[in-house]
Amino acid sequence: MAARSERWADIAVRYRGEVVRSAGHWFAAIGRKELLRLLAEYDLVVAADGANSAIRSGRSDAFGTSLDTRSSRYIWLAVDRPFDALTFLVAESGHGALHGHTYPFSAELSTFIVEADEHAWRAAGLAGPIAGVTPGGSDRFAVERLEEIFADTLDGHRLTGNRSRWRRFTVVRNRRWHQGDLVLLGDAAHTTHFSIGSGTRLAMEDALVLAGLLRDHGCLGGGGGSPQAALVAYEQRRGPAVAAAQRAAQAGLEWFEGIGLAMGREASQFAFELLTRGGRLSCEDLTAAVRSSIVVSVRKSVWSCRIPERTFGRPNSLPSPLCAPGTSRAARKGTRGMSSLTSPDLPADLTLPRLFEKTVARFGARTALVYKGEHFSYAELNSLANKAARSLRQGEVGQGTPVGLHLNRSVELYVMMLAVLKAGGCVVPLNPAHPERVINDVLDAAAVRLVVHQGDHIRELRAVDVMEQAEPLADSDPETEVDAESTAFIMFTSGSTGRPKGVRIPHRGLARLAAPSEELRIDEQDCFVQQAAFSFAASTIEIWQSLLHGAKLVVLPPGPSVTPHA
C-alpha cells in the first residue's frame, strides 16, 4: 500500500499573493479506487456505510448516536494537478472568504475541497438551484464558478467531481460502536472534519484493530471465540484515539467557521494561526519534532511527564497554542489579558525563579513549607527544584513549554511548580477533582504537551527517576531564558458553565500580585495557609506572597479543612 500512495512533507498557505511553507510534517494519501483494489487482496475486510449510515440510523438509540450538522457549506472535488504539499487556500471577496485545501492522492490528481460560511456562500452566487450537472453528476455551476474564484491557484487546471454537491458537514458521535452482532466502523461510528484529513486513516485503523482483536479472540478460522469480547475490546482500544482526533477536528472546524476573524493578518501570522488551530502543532513543533515521552519519579512518588496521548485514558487534541501569547485567535478569545496585574516600573528580568532565588539567598535556613508535620527550608526546596528542573530539561522542557500539573497539595507539587518555571516552562494547574472532560478541555486549550501526575496507572511508559538522574547534576540555580513578560501560569475556570476559559499570567503579573502594599505588609515572620485548590486563582496569592517574602507556607493535605498547628 505504501508503494501506491502519494507522499509529501510540506504544508503551504496561499494568502493574498504570498505563499508560506512549513516543512517536515509528512503526509500520505491514496485514491479510494486504488485503496479498494488493494483491500480486495486481503483475507478479511470490515467496512461500514459512511456518515449517513442506514444501519446506524435504524438503531440510533441503541448506539447513542449524536449528530451535529454545522452551518457552513462545503463541496468535495478533484483537480487534475498534483500539488506538492497540503495546501490551504483562501479566496477573498467583498462579502467574505471562501477557503479550501488540496493535497495529492495520485500522480495526476489532487483532492480539492472548498468551504464557506452561509453568508460568503450566498454572496459568491453559489446558493442558486442546480441548473445542470456534469457527466459525473456534480453541480456544474459550482464547478465552473469555483474554477473562476480559484483561477490563480488552479493555473489553467480543471476541477472535476463525483456527484459533488454543496453539503453541510455533520459531526457523528456514538456512545457505543456495537450492538448485538452489528459493529460500526469509520464514518458510521465517528466523523472528523476534513480539514485534518483523518477520516480514511481512522477507518483503516478501526478495521486493522478490529480484525486483529477478532483474530486474538479466536473468532476467525473457526476458532470458536466470543465476538462480543472482541467488540468490547475494540471500543476500548479505539475510543481514546478517535476522541483525540475528534477534539482536534472540532477545534479546526470551529476555527474555519470563524475564519473571518483572522482575515487581515499578515501572511506569516495567518499561517501560524491556521497551522496551530487544532493544537496538534505548537510553535515549537513548527521547527522541531515532537518530543519523546518520559516518566519521572520524584521523592519516591510515581509521576508521568509526557505528551498526553493517553493521559487519563483520553488522548490529547489540542486547539491553538498559547506559547506565543496574542498571536492566535484562540489565545485572544480564550484568554484574558493580565495588564491590570503588571506594572511598567518592574524590571524586565523580574521572574518568579529569580525572585524566589533572592528569597533563598536571604532566608535559606528558614522554613519554607510545612506538610504533614515535615518542615522544608528554603534552601532544601530550592535544591530539590533545581535538580528537578535540570532533569525536566533533559526531557526537553524549555522556554514556553506548557506543563500540566495534575497533583494534589503536597511537597512534590511545589517542587515541580518551581522546577517547571526554572526550566523555562509555564505551569498549567489541573485539578484532580475535576471531571475528565474538563481536564481534557484544559489540556486542549493550553496546548499542553507534558503532564505531571501522580499514580500507578502509567506503567506502559518508560520510567525515569528525575531525582536519581539529577543527583550528579549541580543543585545550583539554573540559567532560565525567560523574562518578566514570559508566561508563568495558564489558569482556567472550572468549566461548570461550558468549556473552561483560560488566563495567561506572565511572571511580572504574579510578581506584582505578590508584592506587599501599604495595606498588606509581608515579611519572614508571617505564616500562610495553602488551602485553595492549586487550579484556583486564589492559590497563587497564598503561595507566592509566602514564598517570595521568606514566610512560612503551611500546606493543608487534600480533604476536609482543618485548623493547622504549625
State the gist of this model:
This protein is of the alpha/beta class. It contains 17 helices and 25 strands.
Please explain how this structure is put together.
This protein is an alpha/beta fold and 566 residues long. The protein has 17 helices and 25 strands. It starts with 5 loop residues before the first strand and ends in an 11-residue tail after the last strand.
CATH topology of the largest domain: FAD/NAD(P)-binding domain
Strands, total number = 25
| Structural Rg | 27 Å
Describe the largest sheet: 8 strands, mixed
**Whole-number count of domains:** 2
Give unreliable regions as ranges. Answer: 287-345, 456-467
CATH class of the largest domain: Alpha Beta
- The CATH homologous superfamily name of the largest domain equals FAD/NAD(P)-binding domain
End-to-end separation in angstroms reads 67 Å
Shape designation: globular
With helices defined by DSSP (H or I, 4 residues minimum), what is the helix count?
17
How much of the sequence is in beta strands? 15-25%
Mean pLDDT: 77
Under the CATH scheme, the architecture of the largest domain is 3-Layer(bba) Sandwich
**Share of helix, binned:** 25-40%
Structural class label: alpha/beta
Short key terms for the protein model shown above:
566 residues; alpha/beta; FAD/NAD(P)-binding domain; Rossmann fold; 2 domains; 8-stranded mixed β-sheet; 6-stranded mixed β-sheet; 17 helices; 25 strands; globular
